[in-house]
Write a structure and sequence with these properties.
Layout lengths: L2 H12 L21 E6 L5 H14 L4 E5 L11 H10 L1 E4 L13 H8 L4 E7 L12 E7 L3 E11 L2 E7 L2 H17 L4 E6 L7 H13 L6 E6 H10 L6 E4 L1 H15 L6 E5 L4 E5 L9 H6 L5 H13 L3 H17 L13 H11 L2
Parallel strand pairs: 1-2, 1-3, 3-12, 5-10, 8-9, 8-10
Antiparallel strand pairs: 4-5, 4-11, 6-7, 11-12
Helix pairs in contact: 2-10, 2-12, 5-6, 7-8, 10-11, 11-12
Length: about 375
Amino acid sequence: MSASRTSLSLLRTLVPYKTQTRAVTYMPRPGDGSPRPVTLIPGDGIGPLVTNAVEQVMEAMHAPVYFEKYQVHGDMKQIPQEVIDSIRKNKVCLKGGLRTPKGGGVSSLNLHLRRELDLYASLVDCCNLPGLPTRHENVDIVVIRENTEGEYSGLEHEVVPGVVESLKVITKFCSERIAKYAFEYAYLNNRKKVTAVHKANIMKLADGLFLESCREVAARYPTIKYDEIIVDNCCMQLVSKPEQFDVMITPNLYGNLVANTAAGIAGGTGVMPGGNVGAEHAVFEQGASAGNVGKKKMVEQKSANPLALLLSSAMMLRHLQFPAFANRLEEAVKNVILEGKYRTKDLGGDSTTQQVVDAVIAKIE
């Protein structure tokens, strides 16, 4: 063997080739790369800070999207029709949080948007991120929540002074379609188990109907393990052994509680992406808010964590069939977290929103 070949062989031993991770996900058609319009709602509180972070990163990576921006605030009586029309036209929306007034009979615009566009499935992706220490390892939970009925139906009235009746509505139609969504998600993403969260031991008819629907759908997916857990036991199991869960399917109220608990276990609401989807439209936002919208100090110090919404926007890019851009953005965010140099206060640092955004932009390849 020649000296040059010997040297090349030694070099290959010492410096292995970089593993090629790119893959063809689909064959694009002419025009598939055209920039897509996305409705943007900055929202209240930290919303304008984190949505502006997404705008900067999208521009820096030359992502094939452009935003139609509308100002919507939680104290409005309803979402302006022009905003609804924009989302119907574009099919996709990115939004910051909208403040929901407590009490006073003012309805949540977040709920109004979900009902108006029939965004029946909420998805929150809760997983450990390398470089971000947590009490539990191997957490990789997807919480899929029914988004249009249950306790959030908004059917409340005062029967007599001092007595309020609030109706929980569960229907076969909505329970079946959220179950189908959860099992289809698990099947297409190579997930092994779906767990239904319920309180059917007490709410025998309402949660019983939800469970009945989940069981019927589960029978059509024999390769996916299905089990059930009562919601109070679920919360205890989440904080003690979260690694046992994979995909979780829940009615509306339980899903809100479970998603925020799982997010806290996996690293905090500041890094958990999410979205709300229906048959025709999708709205992407921070996966678990836990009251961040109303934190005035974050706004004043411009220290809100933009990573959750950046990861949600990566989900949006994948939804729009731009997987390479989604991968680049996700890798940049994960590298910033792994490096640990720029972190906002909720992750143990003292960086501003802009410093984190600049760090992400610097990591984009």
